[in-house]
Design goal:
The chain is about 30% helix and about 20% strand. The protein has a single domain, classed as Alpha-Beta Complex (Spore Coat Polysaccharide Biosynthesis Protein SpsA, Chain A). The strands form three sheets. The protein has a six-stranded mixed beta sheet with strand order 4-1-5-9-6-10, with helices on both faces. A two-stranded antiparallel ribbon has the order 2-3. The chain has a two-stranded antiparallel ribbon with strand order 7-8. It is an alpha/beta fold. The relative contact order is 0.18. Strand 7 and strand 8 form a beta hairpin. The chain contains six helices and ten strands; from the N terminus they run E-E-E-H-E-H-H-E-H-E-E-E-E-H-E-H. The model has no long low-confidence stretch (mean pLDDT about 95). Helix 1 crosses helix 4.
């Protein structure tokens, strides 16, 4: 299977300005995903790994780190509302005429920098042998369900997601759940093009620890990541 790795890194992050270039243990955040891609290339898991960005500074930083940055992503695929499908299809359409067809795409989001390339390679081999159209990484949450979930309102109140939220919650009655953590997505290209989705209804699982599943979206996440990684 020929898999195209993509490290997506747009420049306009709002929660943490210039997030992909934020310092984490003396390296820009994006460096960790670039290194994971490099190791997956070396193991033969990926046929090629690129950085997709709309930002000149991120592109220059990625190239300085040895990354393959073949183009700048079009602005339409780098807005706050643009879906991942937009930059994935742009990359495939730009590269396949010269590289040949890719059987699948792997996303290595910089905001989830803690990965085990050996575990990824082993899970990708299991994915290749399966009938599944996608693979995702998750961590196990021992207790989570709608009985403890609320939607915040502008007036400072909460609306429960489940009408039984105040009837008592017994942990034993609700088993664990696997929570998608954003560290890894692999999707077969025919499914992606036909469905417009990255995740099928029965994806292959790459299980990661909760501690390795930090996803940097807000300043507190960055503080937590530094506390975990910069020991």
């Amino acid at each position: 299977m020929r898999i195209l790795g993509i490290v997506p890194a747009r420049g306009g992050s709002k929660g943490i300005p210039r997030k992909n270039l934020a310092d984490v243990c003396g390296k820009p955040l994006i460096a960790y995903s670039i290194e994971a891609g490099r190791q997956l290339l070396a193991s033969g898991t990926l046929a090629r790994c690129i950085v997709s960005t709309d930002d000149d500074e991120i592109a220059s930083c990625a190239r300085a780190l040895g990354a393959d940055v073949p183009f700048l992503r079009p602005a339409a695929a780098a807005t706050d509302t643009a879906k991942a499908l937009a930059y994935v299809l742009h990359a495939l359409d730009a590269l396949e005429p010269q590289d040949g067809v890719y059987d699948a795409v792997m996303l290595l989001q910089p905001t989830s920098p803690i990965r085990n390339p050996e575990a990824i390679a082993a899970t990708v081999r299991r994915f290749e042998a399966s009938n599944a159209d996608s693979l995702i990484s998750c961590y196990r949450e021992e207790y989570i369900n709608e009985l403890v979930m609320y939607d915040p309102q502008p007036d400072g109140t909460l609306i429960p997601r489940n009408p039984l939220h105040n009837k008592g919650v017994r942990r034993q009655e609700h088993g664990p759940a696997m929570i998608r953590n954003g560290a890894l997505y692999v999707t077969r290209t025919p499914y992606l093009r036909a469905s417009g989705s990255l995740v099928c209804d029965r994806p292959v699982l790459l299980e990661m620890s909760k501690l390795d599943s930090i996803d940097v979206d807000a300043p507190d996440d960055l503080i937590l990541l530094r506390a975990v990684m910069c020991k």
